[in-house]
Amino acid sequence: MFYSYLSINNPSDFPSREPQQSPIGVFDSGVGGLTVLTQLYRQLPNESILYFGDTARLPYGTRSPAEIVQFTREILCWMQQQQVKMVVMACHTGSALALETVRWEFPFPILGVILPGAKAAVKQGKRIGVIATPATAASNAFPQAIQEIDSTAKVWQVGCPEFVPLIEDNRINEPYTKEVARRYLAPLIQQQIDTLIYGCTHYPHLSPVLRSLLPNSIKLVDPAIHVVKAVACELDLLGLRNNLPPMPTRFCVSGCPQQFIQSSVRWLGYAPVVEKVNLETVLTPSYPLELLD
């Protein structure tokens, strides 16, 4: 297996190009955002992608709102240096806690996964369950979004702190993971939900485990599918869709490249070339402390 480790401290290796040919930035705390990346490959095969995993600071789900906003700003500032034309926050925790704060601070569209997932869920059912990280659940982002779309829908959510570490450690097929999933799903099944939202982009990786525990009548909603549909609409609206062949996907992480490669190869089907990025060298604007509250 071929591994490549690079240290990137300067602006992008991407040369100057037409705006349509610039990459779409995608970021998550780890491999969860690969579910969004896969959908980008399927729905927008001509788009070049810059993928960033903030693996040095995962999991995000137990972080404070102030930390999430700061991490998000640092990543977006770095992506701006890489000349992206759009960013997808392929992280429900970031989408819930940071999107509305940072989306107007940068000169490119920033799309989150909460609203597309909520819109898809209300089309599927009226008794909606959400499994999410503790931080996303505490934010009430999904219940609020769903209620704004359909006030008659009922929503129950469960924080699942163990899921992301189990996925990142490649422990999906262990009996312990199934028992953890059974415990998290039990209160939602008791409420007789008809729809379940993956409230974290990591969670579709658990689909076989979750499906084996859920009644067949419960529909699953993967926000990754629907946020990429929103990306396509935004590209068309702005005239930014790329019609030329894409550049190879560029993978970057803040932590250990080898660990990311080992975690991602089963989802990608190949061992990606991964660059290590030092976000400490990225100059971020100063903001009043109250903005971080």
Molecular structure report:
The chain has 293 residues and is of the alpha/beta class. It has two domains: 5-112 and 225-285, 3-Layer(aba) Sandwich (Rossmann fold), CATH 3.40.50; 114-223, Rossmann fold (3-Layer(aba) Sandwich), CATH 3.40.50.1860. The chain has helices spanning 34-43, 65-81, 92-97, 99-102, 114-124, 134-139, 141-149, 163-168, 175-190, 207-213, 223-238, 257-268, and strands at 5-8, 24-28, 49-53, 86-89, 110-111, 127-132, 154-159, 195-199, 219-221, 250-253, 274-277. Strands 1-11-10-3-2-4-5 form a seven-stranded parallel sheet, with helices on both faces. A four-stranded parallel sheet has the order 7-6-8-9, sandwiched between helices. Helix 10 links the parallel strand 8 and strand 9 (219-221). The termini are far apart.
